[in-house]
Amino acid sequence: MLEVGAEKLIRDDPALARLLDRQACYQEDTLAMIASASIAGPSVLSAAASALSNVTAEGYPGRRYHSGTAVFDEVEELARHRARTVFGARHANVQPLSGSAANLAVLHALMPDGGRLLSLGLDEGGHLTHGAPVSITGHSYDVVHYGLDGAGRIDFEAVKAAAAQYRPAVIIAGSSAYPRTIDFGRFREIADSVGAYLMADISHIAGLVAAGLHPSPIDHAHITTTSTYKQLCGPRGGIILLGRDADTAGPDEHTPLRSLIDRAVFPGVQGTPDPASIAAKAAAFNYLSQPEFRDLAASIVHNARALAHALSEYGYRVLTAGTDTHMVVVDLRPAPITGLAAERALEAVGILVNRNRIPGDHRPARTSSGLRLGTNILSARGMDAADMRECAELIDIVLRQFDANGELRQESPVLIEVADRVRALCATHPLLNGLDVFPLVAPGSESFDKEASAL
Ligand code: DSN
């Protein structure tokens, strides 16, 4: 399918085809350590580029506002079934066009505008959609934040005190730059003590949750959200999951949460979903249920620990002195290097990381004082702890090329050597090795029939 389309694109639109080809080569030749990215394999990319893109279908399977949606209905049912199975959930909504849309829908379902929200602050590792002033969530809701303790861990005493003082309608447990295990059970106890709903946003750790390597929030939180591309090897998009509270009444005291969520996604926050993306989510969930994915998840955590350890040995201050997940956050202070300057210098040699504000950061988000790194993609390339040590060494060499004013010595021949070593490391661990592990469940096979009969 995809191959035929690619040939036609090359013929009809070589300029665009060349750009797409360049992007594929760039991914092959760079060490992507972006913590919020994973690799979508050929099955996912193929589904995302399928003819389902031509289907307009507002509503849900069996209750559409357009005709001609029979196949898409089956695809969406399959995606919902697989999402429920992978995460042990009772209800899944697979329509959110992004993790942000999923979060908006949940907040919209659980409280009116002006309702009070308690969440982790952005500088402490929270997310824009958890009530940051620059997000619509910061405008629409009355936001209170909890923070971290002296060791950089979630300060549960502060969460408890803030919940008791401010009586929020919703508490969010989740982050975009917190490298440690989140105790969702403790969050639920606090939420229950003040009659708040608990929303878990597991976008960054959803792969580890799916693989059983991070405790699941599904039956602790009233509602769980995740994006599907950060760690699920899926397409751009989000999903919403409900566990034991799927049939708990919402704020109106009679509508079940599962119905409130479906209405909040459509027509509350979105119109027509993206059917091809939903097919791609189904393909990703299929991959997540394979033993190969569990192996990948284990390698992601193992590699992140090795990376954190190696960076510490080079003298960098790793937040929380380590990690339980795929993520390593480094405080560049007291060196005068900004996160932005470090990000750019590393990008120039083919190492992709992103700048991040860190607790107590005096720099604005645009420059920041920290770096956030992740091991999802390096692990998908088959890299191991020794490779992480080499990555840490390469990062250290680049960062040592900054002078005392925080300026990079641009002409340093060392940078050329690092770029060569990055390319060599990439060539030893081609991205395609990571992609090759994607199995397709063929119609007629035993697992396909089992899955079909469970729908
Ligand atoms: N939420 C952003 C991040 O964590 O990088 C991207 O989706």
Q: Could you provide a short overview of the structure?
A:
The chain is an alpha/beta fold and 455 residues long.
Molecular structure report:
The chain has 455 residues and is an alpha/beta fold. The protein has 18 helices and 15 strands. It has helices at residues 2-12, 14-29, 42-48, 70-87, 99-110, 136-140, 156-166, 184-194, 206-210, 257-269, 275-288, 291-313, 339-348, 376-380, 385-399, 413-428, 431-435, 446-454; strands spanning 31-32, 59-60, 63-64, 91-93, 116-120, 142-146, 170-174, 197-201, 223-227, 238-242, 317-318, 327-331, 351-352, 354-356, 370-374. The strands form four sheets. A seven-stranded mixed sheet has the order 4-10-9-8-7-5-6, with helices on both faces. The model is unreliable at 434-443 (pLDDT under 50). Residues 36, 127, 176 line the site of D-serine.
Keywords:
455 residues, 18 helices, alpha/beta, 45% helix, 4-stranded antiparallel beta sheet, binds D-serine
For the residues shown, what is the average pLDDT? Answer: 94
Number of strands: 15
Bound small molecules, deduplicated? D-serine
Strand-pairing-aware structural class:
alpha/beta
Shape summary: globular
Calculate Rg over CA atoms: 22 Å
Helix content: 40-55%
Low-confidence stretches: 434-443
Protein topology:
Elements: H1 2-12, H2 14-29, E1 31-32, H3 42-48, E2 59-60, E3 63-64, H4 70-87, E4 91-93, H5 99-110, E5 116-120, H6 136-140, E6 142-146, H7 156-166, E7 170-174, H8 184-194, E8 197-201, H9 206-210, E9 223-227, E10 238-242, H10 257-269, H11 275-288, H12 291-313, E11 317-318, E12 327-331, H13 339-348, E13 351-352, E14 354-356, E15 370-374, H14 376-380, H15 385-399, H16 413-428, H17 431-435, H18 446-454
The structure holds D-serine (DSN).
D-serine binds at residues 36, 127, 176.
